[in-house]
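Table 4 source record.
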Amino acid sequence: MAEAKGSIDADATASRAVASSGTRYSLQRKVALWTLGMVMVPTLLCALWLNDMALTALTETHHRNVSNLTQAVATGLTNRLNDGWSPEAQDVIDALFLERRLAFIVITDPQEHVLHRRSIDPDAWAQFTRQTGLAGMNGSIDLERIMSFGEAGQTSVRRTPIFNPPNRTDVPRQLEGFVLLGLRDPSLPDAMARLRWLQFLAAALVCALSLPLVLLAVRKWTSPLKELMLATVRLGQGENPPPVPVTTRDEIGELGAAFNDMAARLSAAHNDLRAANEDLERKVEARTSQLNEANDRLESEIREKNEFLRAVSHDLGAPLRNIDGMAGLLLSKYKAQLADDALNKLERISANAKVQIDLLNDLLELSRIRTRQGKRERVDLQVLAEEVRTNLCYDLEAHRIALEIHGPLPTVLAERNRMRQIFQNLLDNAVKYMLDAKERRIIVGYERWEGRAHFFVNDTGRGIAKQDQPHVFDVFRRAQHSGSHHVAGRGVGLASVKAIIECYGGRIWLESELGKGTTFHFTFDAQQVGLEGENPGEDSEVQKTTTSEALNAALERLIDSPAKSE
């Protein structure tokens, strides 16, 4: 019962879907209308053709009657007009008036002089004179043509010559006169109208009788198509329609069989896809749960390591500051009393303490980059770069380095200190590793690239060996194969630059060849930094794996390794 109700609801839904598709006339209605048109139009044309044939036949019969009657009168008047009008000719005319259809008759001599004229129907005679303009005979009427006038040509006029003698060959024929006779049949219009009505009635009866046959045939032909259409709609809605019944072996039957085969294949494929989708959803759900757990653990580890780093920095920073302070106090108070060896060691203690304090401060700053986002503001990078140039002017002049800023650089919505830190670290790095290069130049540039803000810092310095390039942005990793290991540095600057850039949805990479210089490329997500008036998006998600690795490396180097002597 439930299955039957569901099938009825599905059929109703499919019917509504078909009805709402905007189709004004169904295929069944169209076929019925076209078929009826193909029946009615030829039937009506045949009726018109038969009506025309009937009218032609009636007209020809009427003309034949007037011709026969005129010829009979001409024959009857032969040899009776030699001396003009005679009693014998009058007898012939009197006998003619037994014909009720006679309208008028005119007898003339060969010179068109009227010998006798009688008008039985004055209206017919008046119509004849108006049409021909003749009050009598003047020889202008065609002897071979029958004139017709009046409604439906009911009045026909024929003029026939009278010859004497008509049937003898030994005597030459002589023209004795003319007979002009008008014959009127008042029943001809009614007969034509009745015949026309009967023909159209017959055509209407034929169309009416063919209507149920046409509808029955059309319904029988198109019902499989309707079932196929409803099944197609249900199949398109994701349901599994029942097989379409195939009752014929024509094209519609083949179409139904092909649809049933296609529906079966689609149903099997849909079931397989649904099963695969459910399995995939289960796997995704399980994997998402695992990732959430791993993410929670990672966040917990990062928080713990940050807390540990702050605690270590505080616990190590305070003693180091005390050591530095005590060493400085001893140097300032007892410098004159201490031996040179003791003074040297105190200075080394103070220097190493300062180095370790700076290192701890760098590590704390690296941790704050991702965990403590500052206030964003509009920063004109062109102005900022000029300020960095001013700060580095002494080093640039001392090392004879030309700094070129190919602007204008854009204005971004970001933390001013972080943006300054990027350019400061990259330019300071370029100055330090310029070394003994012959061409001494640094170029800062910008361009829009694939929907992102693309910056670059190019220098003509020492360059970086390929073996060292993968580790340039790692914490505490210094170049070992580039011949620049003697340059002072703590190995945290480029790692900080990378962390800042990734916070703004960008990335950093380098292109370098040993002895030919280095180019650092970095990009910003245009929406993250609100470039060119765009609304900035939320800060990018903290890349926990990179931070965790950096903090792990920092803690291991800080705890497990002793402080290096200068």
